[in-house]
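Re: beginner question about structure tokens

> Can someone show what the tokenized structure looks like for a real chain? I only ever see the sequence side.

Sure, here's an example I had lying around. Input first:
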Amino acid sequence: MKNKIILLLVLLIPSLCFGNTSKELAQKGQLFWLAFTCSHIAKLAEDADETKRLLEIGLREGRIFIEAVKKNKISKLDIYENVPLVVMDSFKKYRLGSQSTDFILGSIYSKADQDAIRVVFGSHDKYLEILKEYNPEKREANIKLKAKSSLRRRNTWLIK
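And the corresponding structure tokens:
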């Protein structure tokens, strides 16, 4: 009996001490969106390792966040204060209960591509101007340079 109580305490204490609060779970919504956007930027910079690393972080944190939302573990106030609107708009569009977590993550990941273009180039129109460049080598070098610069400015190495 004593061993069972000790085992129960060992299993419960970490979750009680280190459990995610509503605010921490809401911040995962912001983190996975940032990781997805930066993954697309790393792809533009032709950095395959960073693209993969950031995508994996986004998927991990996004799954935790979406499951927490589905289970009502995050207060409406924490969502309002911490979660990007584009993420919550996806939830409204796909109705949480009717779609799988991975489907929702996929739709949000595809939206992050547009955000990455806005972050790197300022607007989609400026990106299209660069794509019109006749010299493909110059065009690719320009895109890569701008994307690498954006990754440095965003300190993506800090995303864990």
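Each token stands for a local structural state, so reading them left to right follows the chain. DSSP finds eight helices and no strands in the chain.
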